[in-house]
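[job 0412] stage=fold_complex status=start
inputs:
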Amino acid sequence: MERILRGKIWRFGDGISTDHIIPGRYYHLRGNLQALAEHALEDADPEFARSAQPGDFVVAGKNFGQGSSREHAALVLKERGIAAVIASSFARIFFRNAVNVGLMPIICDTGGFETGDEIEVDLVEGRVRNLTRNLERTFRPLPPVMRAILESGGLVPHVLRYGGFRWPDTP
Amino acid sequence: MGLTLAEKIISRRLGETVRAEDIVVVPVDLLLAHEGTGPLALDRFSALERTRPATQTLFFSDHAAPAPRRELANVQKRLRTFAEEGGARFYPPGEGICHQIVAEQWARPGQIILGADSHTCTAGALAAFATGMGSTDIAVAMALGETWLRIPPTIRVEVEGPLPPMVMAKDVILHVIGLLGADGANYQALEFGGSTVAAMSVEERMTLCNMAVEAGAKTGLCASDEQTRQFLAERGRAEDYLPLAPDPDAVYERRVELHAPSLSPQVAFPHFVDNVRPVEEAGDVPIDQVFIGTCTNGRLSDLRMAAHILRGRQVHPGVRLLVCPASREVYLAALQEGWLQIFIEAGGLILPPGCGACVGVHQGILADGERCLSTQNRNFQGRMGNPEAEIYLASPATAAATAVRGRITDPREFL
Ligand code: SF4
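[job 0412] stage=fold_complex status=done
writing structure:
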């Protein structure tokens, strides 16, 4: 994993649900990730669906990813090359899914961040710097088990590598 | 220091006492997925170089059943083939919604159940620790027979006193979600108790536990008691019964107390489940479609309540009424008791057991600008297939009353 990530953000509000990220009307596309990813978040911001670039960040308010367990919600963002999802808080299943597919979730105060801002994320120091607005936020590292999964590149590679769940203080 | 139900179930399963915030690796008793999440789980499972699940696994065709298009027919076939070859169990279209079938046929007090569907928590009504996860977690549990969990701290929801007539379990849980907020129980368990819950049938408890995830909870739980024993015994599963309750001195993160006799029917307004108000404050809201069904409220007691209001009445000419029994068992019982005939005579239409209109894949998609009042659990923008439509959530009683009047209506007008 790169230590420093840098890119442009797309700003979303509170309570973005998995129905926003991939609407049920595209249910039949779940077997075609690339086609599904073209519709990512289109009900929340059609411009994102059209023009998000690899290396961009998704930044949101509270309870990002609430709703269904569809892992495709995390996968389409990964497929679009989103560097990390940063939100004030996450819904539980989305958070776990993101880690499992190797998409970095970051919890920090996102107040004052706007679409188009340039940010820099330091994964080791736990810092997000908004270069456009000169704001700085800190975040806490993930729990050890999740860090271990992300470091393996997701849960499948993790299990293939260790034969089970392994983290520094595994019970 | 006593244990909450969540702590107790996991401690029993591990054979040692664990508490909230502990991170543990636990054995898993039952796994489930459906045509929306199962195929990805199978991709992952084969990436893990496995062929046969290490734990009892169920696949359901319920979200798009029968298949409305070729792609979905193909994934259903794939699940069926895997089940036939790999020793999993497949439920074809028409059997019903996964969570309903899990409760009727599989869930047992004390089990740990994971599902690739967020409403897996419904089985908490039978005192199983049941939670939704993504396809990868399910595939890994299929491969290893275990998962990792952080034991959730618990919010105890204590409901006391009798529910007034026409006020249902749905109104209790909508009210609780309104109080807690959509993320108010994030990463926690909701444990329902008190005299109101003790008097509820397992069907009603399923409505409570089903919507725990709408407050962000990892699981919803009710104690296993005489009601549970009866529910299991009625389905020829008396030997699955195990009494389980939290300790009186369990440590809770928080307590929420509710006085049932003063509760009114509740309505969640678009586009958020926690945007809840009592029906008296709903104002004048015309409705184009009423949907009665889903894993939240598609059970026999729900249909019975709706039929009670619709008997001898007609659905308002401006309303489409869709009714969808949650499973084949419910369908047959509703048929035998005469409820389906009442719906059809009133002008409603019956959908085959399954998710029906709930998730916007097929059957009952809304037109631009339309409003639907549904007994389901989510009203997010676009949920029923059209982001230009609005969804209101309420109980089967409120839904039936609304179908008759054509606008959101207090079911107590039909007392
Ligand atoms: S009825 Fe609706 S909420 Fe329940 S499992 Fe089906 S799609 Fe999900």
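[job 0412] summary: The mean pLDDT of chain B is 97.
[job 0412] exit 0
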